[in-house]
Amino acid sequence: MTHRDPWTVTLEASAAADPHSLLLHALHVALTAPSPGNSQPWRFLLGDEHVDIFTDPGRALPVRDPEGQQRIIAGGAALGLLRVALRALGLGETTTLLPGDHPDLLARVALSGSVIATPEETWLLQAAPKRRTHRGLLAARPVRERLLQRLQDVARDSDAELLVLGSSRQRAALAARVDAAARARDQDAAWNDERRAWPEPGPEPFEDSSGGPASGPAILEGAPVLALLTTAGDDPLAWLRAGEALVRVLLRGRVDHLYASFLNGPLTRSADRWAVAAESAVLGDMPQTPGYAQLALRLGYGSDLPATPRRPLSEVLLASPP
Q1: Of 74, 93, 185, 269, which has the highest C-beta tally within 10 A?
Q2: Same structural domain for residues 248 and 203?
Q3: pLDDT of residue 199
Q4: In terms of DSSP H, where are the helices of the chain?
Q5: pLDDT at site 2
Q6: Alpha-carbon gap, residue 138 to 208, rounded angstroms
Q7: So what's the pLDDT on residue 161?
Q8: What is the CATH number of the domain that holds 58?
């Protein structure tokens, strides 16, 4: 089972299995989490009825992600998918974030008996193998306000906020920051060396109408919704929670045929994450700054896309603690 393609796992595949097999099944689902440059920076240590999730320093991108923020968010996304899958498969879990046993240990998830999955939990699991990062233009039709509010509620349930940039000033300001970051990156030899050295470099975050990297005004084309995922703090715990919130927002959106892609360029450092959130708050006439912008997202309607390859579970399972 550990050699299966994570994208082919379905809810029905293991519905009657024992808890350990269901835990393995849920780990396959976790492997479909998004990560910067498709780096997949996670490792798992599996017990009979628990799993430890570690970040993988060997998959770090020190130029692109100098503070390790994106790497830990990716670990949080894998954790969020694992928890979604366990609940949908009828397994209760108790999760401890940052237990402290090892500097790379992000979370410990222990099984805690059986639960009855809600329809919402089942829908989220069914959406997992259908989720894609949509890098092309999104459809021009607007996203329903009710759906955006639902996504905001989902983020809030994970101690994050989804700030929808509703004004043209907010959208233009974020696009300008994304464009400036992309131009600086193109001139950064270290960034380009790191990308070329990566064994499986991910594609550009999003594209313009010609299929090339979007820049300038094209950043706002095909992006009916721009949003920031924010947290009150800016530390590994906040990044983990942001990852969990992200994956639940993406899955909930996919249930309603919504796609997303990422605009992470201007959020590399803590000061930038604060500045982007503060600027959006001022331009949106918000009474206070919503903390730190951990991720910037494009949201809208798209079409089905091929899945991005993932490492098999056998490649990320640890035989012993690191």
Answers
A1: 74
A2: yes
A3: 56
A4: 19-30, 69-88, 119-127, 145-157, 168-186, 189-197, 236-255, 270-283, 313-316
A5: 47
A6: 10
A7: 97
A8: 3.40.109.10
Task: Please give the order of strands across the beta sheet that includes 42-46.
Answer: 42-46, 50-55, 105-114, 91-97
Q: Looking at the domain assignment, is residue 260 inside a domain?
A: yes
- Tokens describing residue 175: 């696009």
State which residues form the domain around 82.
Answer: 6-132+309-316
CA distances from 263 to 207, 219, 284 (A): 11, 10, 19
Nearest to 258 by CA among 306, 205, 302: 302
Domain count, the chain: 2
Residue 156 to residues 106, 171, 229, 263, 311: CA-CA distances in angstroms? 21, 22, 10, 21, 31
Mean pLDDT by 10 residues, the chain (322 residues): 68 65 92 92 93 95 91 98 95 95 95 93 93 89 95 97 96 93 79 65 62 79 93 98 98 96 89 96 87 96 88 94 89
The closest of 6, 29, 3 to 307, measured between CA atoms, is 6
Q: What is the pLDDT of residue 16?
A: 57
For the question of whether the overall pTM of this predicted structure is more than 0.90, the answer is yes
